[in-house]
Amino acid sequence: MANILMPKATAVWLVDNTALTFEQIADFCELHRLEVKGIADGEVAEHMRGVDPVSRGELTRDEISRGEADEKYELKPASSKFDKVVAPPKRKGARYTPVSRRSDRPDAITWFIRHHPEISDAQISKIIGTTKNTIEAIRTKSHWNSENLKPVDPVTLGLCSQLELDALVAKASAKRQKMEENREIGSVGAGIDMLRTNEEGGLETSDPFADFGAEAKRKSDQNEPNADDVFANFGKSSEEDKD
């Protein structure tokens, strides 16, 4: 199947400039045979100007010659000169937002602040095409329309696509999780370094349970009666009874 940009105009040119049959032209241009016959008879596309498929890179001269030599030959479109589609350059800077949708951006910012606080102001500014000053004003509720703002999904507002939003949320969540893991590792490492420093410096860490045991033993020693005192008091009590 040939991808002809202007099939009827191409058929006009092939009818006027080649000896191809109606069937061959109809198959190549994806038209009906009777429509091609009508073009040849002047009943269809009477005032239409023909378009050369050779100059447009849709057909080659050799292919036309093969078709003219064999009525049953099926014309094959020319291969594209551009085998690889060049991707458009990656967009830099803030997204352009149409004027009709710019009034919806504060609602989208409110949605980001409430539902995805892990996303930075720079990321919000880039995906919906706003400024950091506007985001800060909405965050601090100093925006002129703060009382009427309501959180609305930016995809629903047409400010970005669902794929772009999902990618941004996943990226921000992964970055936040990595920062938390690094913070935990840093806290554990600081504790280990402190213990190692105390051991190297000959410092002894206090043990509250050891102090409690020593205090209990001291009180127990003070309250424990002495055998000599007991017998001395016993003898003294007997003499007082005799008197």
UniProtKB/TrEMBL annotation:
Organism: Hirschia baltica (strain ATCC 49814 / DSM 5838 / IFAM 1418)
Pfam families: TrcR
InterPro entries: TrcR
Region of interest (Disordered), residue spans: 197-243
Protein name: Cytoplasmic protein
Lineage: Bacteria, Pseudomonadati, Pseudomonadota, Alphaproteobacteria, Hyphomonadales
